[in-house]
Design a protein that fits this description.
Number of domains of chain D: 1
Number of helices of chain D: 16
Helix content of chain C: 25-40%
CATH topology of chain D: ABC transporter involved in vitamin B12 uptake, BtuC
Number of helices of chain C: 15
Helix content of chain D: over 70%
Radius of gyration of chain D: 20 Å
Largest sheet of chain D: none
Distance between the termini of chain C: 53 Å
Chains: A mainly alpha (320), B alpha/beta (314), C alpha/beta (489), D mainly alpha (313)
CATH class of chain D: Mainly Alpha
Bound molecules: adenosine-5'-triphosphate, magnesium ion
CATH architecture of chain D: Orthogonal Bundle
Strand content of chain C: 15-25%
Oligomer: heterotetramer
Number of strands of chain C: 21
Structural class of chain C: alpha/beta
Largest sheet of chain C: 6 strands, mixed
Chain lengths: 320, 314, 489, 313
Amino acid sequence: MNGLSKGMPRALLEKAWLGSFLAAAAVWAAAMIYSGGQGGGQMLGAALSFSTFFVIVGIGQMLIIATGPGNVDLSIPGTIALAGAIAMKVMDGEDSLIVVGLAASLAAGAAVGAANYGLIRVLRIPPIIATLSSNLLVQSTAIAYGRGLRVKPPPAFADFTTATVFGVPVLALCAVVFAAVMAVVLARTVFGRSVLAIGQNMRAAWLAGVAVDRTRLLTYTLSGLFAGLCGALLAGFSGGSSLDMGMEYLLASIAVVVIGGTSVAGGKANVPGIWGAALFLFLLLTMLNTFGAGAGVRLVMTGLIIIAVITMAGGDKPAR
Amino acid sequence: DTADKRIALSNNYAGNSWRQAMLKSWDKVTGKAVADGIVKEAPAFTTAENQATEQAAQIQNLILQGYDAIVLNAASPTALNGAVKEACSAGVTVVSFDGVVTEPCAWRIAVDFAKMGEVQLDYLAKRMAGGANLLEIRGLAGVFVDDEIHKGIVAGVAKYPQFKIVGSVHGDWAQTVAQKNVAGILPSLPKVDAVVTQGGDGYGAAQAFKAANRPTPLIVMGNRHDELTWWKQQKDANKYETMSVSIAPGVSTLAFWVAQQILDGKPVPKDMIVPFLRIDQENLEQNLANTEPGGVANVEYLQADALKVIASAK
Amino acid sequence: MQATSERLIRLQGVAKSFGPVRALAGVDLAVDAGECLGLVGHNGAGKSTLMNVLAGTLEADAGEIVIHGERRSPYNVGLAHRLGIRCVFQELSLCPNLTVAENARIIHPKLSGWGWRKRAAGLIVAKLDEIFPGHGIRADDVVGDLSIGRRQMVEIARAFTVSDRPVHLVILDEPTSSLDSVSAEQLLSFVRKVVATGLGCILISHLLGEVLDYADCIVVMRDAKVVTSRPAREMTRDSLVAAMGDVGDERVVAERPSAVRRRDAAPIRVRVRSRRGGRHELVAHEGEVIGLAGLAGHGQTDALIQIYRSSRRRAADTVVTGPVALVPGDRQTDGIFHLWSIGQNIGIRSLKRMSRRGLIDLAQERQLAEDWKRRINIRTPDMTNNILSLSGGNQQKALFARALGSDAEIVLMDDPTRGVDVGTKLEIYEMIRTEAAKGRTFLWYTTEMEELANCDHVYVFRNGRIVADLASDQLTEAKVLQSSFEETV
Amino acid sequence: MLATLTSRRFLRSALPAISLVMILLPIFYMQPRTMSYFGLNLLLNLAIPIALATMAQMFVLTVNDLDLSIGSYVSLVACIGATWLQQTPLLGVAALLACIVVYGLLGALVHVRNLPSIVVTLGMSFVWLGLAVLLLPTPGGQAPGWIRTVMTLKTPMVPFPILAALLIGVLVHFGLMRSSYGAVLRGAGGNPRAVARAGWSVLRTKVTMYVMAGIFGMLSGLSLVGLTTSADANIALRYTLLSIAGVILGGGEFVGGRVSPIGAVLGTVTLVLAGSFLSFMRISPDWQIGAQGAILIVVLALRALINRRGSTA
Ligand SMILES: Nc1ncnc2c1ncn2[C@@H]1O[C@H](COP(=O)(O)OP(=O)(O)OP(=O)(O)O)[C@@H](O)[C@H]1O
Ligand SMILES: Nc1ncnc2c1ncn2[C@@H]1O[C@H](COP(=O)(O)OP(=O)(O)OP(=O)(O)O)[C@@H](O)[C@H]1O
Ligand SMILES: [Mg+2]
Ligand SMILES: [Mg+2]
């Protein structure tokens, strides 16, 4: 039997994977029907471009969550704010400085991630508290550095982040490719396997020769790096950085990961599911906005629909 | 004489440009007051999370530190009442502004938020006498300010029935959230002629309209530098016309002076109203020039200005 | 009592399938009160599955269960407990976060109210004292902190504790796999004693000697069916092996390579300097098979972990030259990745070698799995099945394959044949010898005295120190035992 | 005796207390006023609702689940407390009971369908918040007098918050750590299969734990509204993260049923005090937020140091 061809379809048929896309399609259809079939394509375009940011940070968050229970990155909001501020300030509206600014914000993100793991490994602080604390520190740094000032992105950078081809956002296309690459990394590289092994049983992974420390350091660094990337792109996309622009990513980054089918118990990750979940959450909000319900009703509906979707998709059965 | 008095600012959030400008104004005005020997000290405290419970704990700590007065921008008009009452009974003067508290023992420097909603419709009625489709961007659900401005807007629509709110989203007063939610709902909306806002979200809305390739509607702005800059660009390019309205961050300095006056033993009424800061087509350039890049259009108060406000409230 | 005419337990035509795998194909089994039934069979024969059915934790597809003369249907764990059936599962089922006493409470629903902790502690400690004198376990020890051997003792003792309801049958699924020979002997004598008082007992073991010596009647399973069921005195080791259908009996006493190498000739692979003033240091040369002996939990596993650790990161008192692989014995906590297939579990140690331009070559990974499936006979229709679909012994084989299939020059083995059947064991011994001849070095901790016979050199551990250093020609069971109990030799 | 005092297990369980002392001493030093009855009262009374929410979170964590909805649930309860419970007590009580029943049902749903609790409770966090917004679209309401009375109780000698925290910790300790069914409940977190094999219903343990979470979340909301006198829909949102941090700070773990109620209460108090500590220190406004993070890191790093000392001793 061919392990690849047997392994892949099994992954493709993961219920959660399909579930989130089906759910996204359903809420989109509902919104379309309500608005009389108008603007469906545009709605999808908007969903794609905003989901991009959630997918980018979601993948980083997924790598961390997959390394086992208790591992989570709560420093993403601060990192996004800081990286956005750095990108805008370094670029200073000049097209020629785009690359420098991007590199600076990526470096800042990666540094935050690596520092997070330092707190976890060297000081033995549980990840949730370590990243929670570092989020506050990074936020302060962003305030002290950026002072909440809004610097406009360089025109070329702003154009790139908002460009579309045939109505499809260019950034979203890049993110699809990025997700595909990360899916391969997860399934086919030593790093990916190491992440999943550590997530199932860190001690067993260590005894099986996995470079535990290096792998965990890399997951936290990558998560910071992706948050930094997201911050820079978001600043370009929305015409400048702001201190609060990362705020909604605290819970949302976790939500897209777990709704996308990654197991919080560790050892199981799902990249396409993140796309599905990000689209689903955006379109769900859009649908409820379209219905014109009040805030209370809208929140209640959001919650109930999320629970309904996960209940229908069902959890995974224990192996034995 | 208040030379030995200590006044603290309790602030619940620092994560946007308005709050940053507010803190800066406080720093500037109180720094001078301390240097002039008017008060002993006037530090500012910000909570790590924007939550009433955390601010309540902060107020309790300020009581313990023996401040004579606490100037308060409250996370909630009611949820801090317990802590405020504790402060009052410990002999601490509490002056709230912007986010005011309902506890009777505290002073309030309130902005008529409902009015802030209503003037937007008054303006639109002048501009679009024939009526129009409106998109409303609201703030954070469950928060007093959001509800007040919304009420004002609803009242305005009732006054001018030619206007119709065709869509409403919550932008949480954050530019990126506003942009995201507007972009989501736009495709399902008919033509939108104007956008009524609560401040801080106008630029995000403009971005969303641009991304959706929709004609830019009349967007009411919220005095932020980026909003004013954008407005100016549009004005220069195609005679774009709108208005901008928000509360001036410098109101914190008014609250400072009010607290100082109370400590000085002057009679001060419990409730005061400050006007909001409105920018129109004519004075756009002037205001833009006075606003620092990335900040918010601002008015700072001197002791004399504060006395005028107190006197007019009597 | 009139129970003698009625059998305590009778299973008839029990069948169970997991997807395409037939684990039980119509099995009959009967146990009398006061009888110890030995159950043997190759890895994956269906023993544990049958016991799970009897304990009510698995539902059979077909067949009937008669207990105390009554047909029980529906049947479940709760009912089994009420009827006095206790089971010590192969993969231990204690709660690691609870203390020993609290774990005892879990199986006694009536153990509550004031002072329940005292009572639970009394109950379990008394039973431990009775079965394993000198066990060194305290009632308030947290189970997760205990070594696997002690966990096994706790679980066994717990199964024999009685509070409000009498116990009629105790199932012991490979109870001695993690015990050393002394504790195993204590347990088996205890079993004889309680069986004499009228208790029924089912004993599963791959150590045929234990079954032959202590069971009244022996049932042999093979490929999901019972093939023989006879009184133990009519059976011999050879007839058992024949019934189990394993070949390789000829190799059982195959001579160890008689040409004992001169130790100093080969380069040193591992050296652990003695700590705390021990007299002996641990040395392993290239191509040697080094045995670590002594009572369970006296520092052998720690020594292996120490060696493993210094292979990853230099340490002052340990020298390790060359890549190391480890075969864990506590497979649930140290070994398997429960979400992965058998193939992935085997491949994890060799990923770097199987990568081409940064990508793992899946064909090669598959190839590795298939090779080892053949070489040590892992019983599964498909190596892409989940690792947990394997029987306990087969899981252990996969861990073996992980280490032997890697590029390691030094292989550390932590009682690696736990739960592996006779035939496979012989193949493994053979494999170790050939690999050693090719230059691989093995450090082998074992709780089975016979396995030491495969070693070139044996270190006996006591209280974390090496107390004896025996070359293979000096090695006798008596000597090992003697050193295990005394500080010096 | 000395051996037990320096033993690793003892040190590990004493860590929460040690961190608490480490943060309390500088506070006393910097602001001696806090050492009074009045001072301790002010310093600690807001820790009570957080401690109760932390207990609620701990029940859920014990059975290997995570409750992301506790913050909005506490907010909703506070809103019910400030509205229905005050105006129409019967309706209020019925609503609170219904909330607890919903919690129990959630436990059952998570178990029966084998769902990730984190998604289900994430969904519930929107539901609770939405209900709170519907009930109290704009902040307000009034806490019933009896709750006010309880929360402002002037106990003799020892301030009420300290007594309450002790009571919460000890009560839950006896219920979960010392009682015989408590052992089964924790066992269900450590090895659910073992508990099921011993004939217990794992479903029942899950539902029990969720119901307990619902009850303690309710107590948290009511005590909170008693302190603040009125409510708003967003009042306790940050309790979600705070309660998780409190459990972990108290020595609990994410999986495996390893929790410590007394440790969690101490952990909560430590978290609350960390905030106070900072307002007693003068820090530039820019860095005030960051300092909260820094102080947590310092406290935990010191713990790690002690822990390492403990493990080598
Ligand atoms: N005895 C042990 N049991 C279980 N896990 C261990 C043990 N010792 C170390 N580890 C795990 O391995 C990690 C550190 O191991 P080590 O220092 O050998 O680094 P490593 O895994 O080799 O990584 P790298 O190769 O990147 O340095 C720790 O985080 C710990 O989780
Ligand atoms: N949950 C399961 N899913 C799929 N197959 C299973 C499962 N449990 C057992 N099997 C299969 O059933 C067969 C019998 O397994 P069982 O565990 O009863 O063997 P055993 O005789 O106890 O072996 P061992 O001596 O190795 O413990 C094996 O082929 C095993 O792979
Ligand atoms: Mg078995
Ligand atoms: Mg053994």
